[in-house]
Write a structure and sequence with these properties.
heterodimer, A: about 325 residues, mainly alpha, about 70% helix, globular, B: about 280 residues, alpha/beta, Rossmann fold, four-stranded antiparallel beta sheet, 10 helices, about 25% strand
Chain lengths: ~325, ~280
Amino acid sequence: MEQLLYASEIVVNGLMTGVMYALVALGFVLIYKASGVFNYAQGVMALFAAMTLVGIQQGQVPFAHLINALTGTHVSHFGWNVPAVLAIALTAVVMVLLAIAIQKLVLQHLVGQEPIILFMATIGLAYFLEGLGDVMWGADVKTLDVGLPQGISDAAEALTARLTGYGFFIDRLDIWAAVIATALVAALVAFSQYTKQGRAMRAVADDHQAALSVGISLRFIWIMVWSIAGFVALVAGIMWGTKSGVQFSLSLIALKALPVLMLGGFTSIPGAIVGGLIIGVGEKLFEYFVGPMIGGATETWFAYVLALGFLVFRPQGLFGERIIERV
Amino acid sequence: MNEHMTTADFEPYTTADGRRIGGVMMDLRNITLRFGGVTAIKDISFDIREGEIRAIIGPNGAGKSSMLNVISGFYVPQEGEVWFRGKRRPALRPYQVARLGIARTFQNIALFDGMTVLDNIMTGRLTMMKSGLVSQALWWGPAQREEIEHREKVERIIDFLEIQNLRKTPVGRLPYGLKKRVELARALAAEPSLLLLDEPMAGMNVEEKEDMSRFILDVNDEFGTTIALIEHDMGVVMDLSDRVVVMDYGRKIGDGTPSEVRNNQAVIDAYLGVAHD
């Protein structure tokens, strides 16, 4: 009984972690669906968004080091603090500007190229953004605090203690992440299924020529999709940044999104969620039950091995579109 | 070589089967299109009149599809002018041309394979949807009314093209002939004033060709849609069209009614005499 309860606590915590993975994976799916591009830079976009958010919030002068080095001044901060909500809004604006810049400077010149070319371009974009973030805001580790509650949730502990006699340890931040991610997914699904812009997005994903012929502007749709991906990156950046600090390793969570995508399928929004949850729960349970037998630290590789299995037996993932082709 | 235009050519008239042909809707003047060193279209001029069915014919590689791509904005010619409804059209992007009321189909069928027949046709009306983002997402009030309105228009087209039983079928599963029909339906959903059809009957059997011919005539007759089409089947072209442009190696070698074109020696030499048997 004790064991079972402990396992359920692990499952709950795994689900919460899974939501965080799903948040990152979502950004990949959006861009992949709309333009067939695997955006390697998605993780770095989350890092860049988090850095920009911290910078704006703390009133940092962008490019301070560069300005100081060039002009011999010693600027670092404007001397004001921006409220969290306003700072998030301003960061969202920055992400939209970034989307426009990416479209104008990169994508526009690569229309009609092979997907692998576009993929390579996003690798370049990832390194560029990483550098830009450092130059703009400095490379030091920053703490991010937008007022999200953190630490053990007393309410959850009390509730589970009353129900089962065993108090679950659940981080309040994880609960918030789950709520926000659910809202975000609901909004995205409503957007892509029912709105004119969402339909246009799906049309562009399917066939560029056909989309043009019914009066859809590819340029507008791409900017829109990259803006949304930037916004999702911002949300992921806030969650992960609050959890583990804003630093370079934040961009590496993107790697965890890969097995999530292989499970869920690159083209499915619900797939990204379910994939994230399976990985989150799977790696926690595996660590708990099998970890001790084989020396622990299984969380670093479990997801990838699972993804490998999927690649062999079900390459389109759980929810991915099977490509139908008449021959 | 170019036929000289007289003012009589611009007079509206009524055809033998009672359709009204109006003034010039689209006027292409001295169009030249090059790809690097290759000249796909060389100094071609012709016009399309309100309400007529205008065919563009010619052997393979004559530049017919390029011509259609110029009209629909997919290609921008290096020289020449495109006049639409009495105004010179600047170099527009394809989606802007579509919003002017010029719809098209493609030689190699460009449909959204992942969507159903109904969703495909609905995309034809995307640019006409006016209600706001939020009300659409929430399926609320005006957005709902608007959606129903558009859906009714689309249902009319579905009935018209006799594809009622395919509404929910993913387009990727349809056979070739039906795909062509869905593509026509999507183009019609935009309620275009000018409809461009790139080989609407290529690869079809006789029965499918007859169906498609009937649809084209009905569209022109019932909706008054002006149609420009490219077609290989000479019999079909001669039956369908009011006037025919003949192209060969990127040049115009003939222009006129089907009977005029059929008796044009240059056309016989370049196309009919060589391409057939």
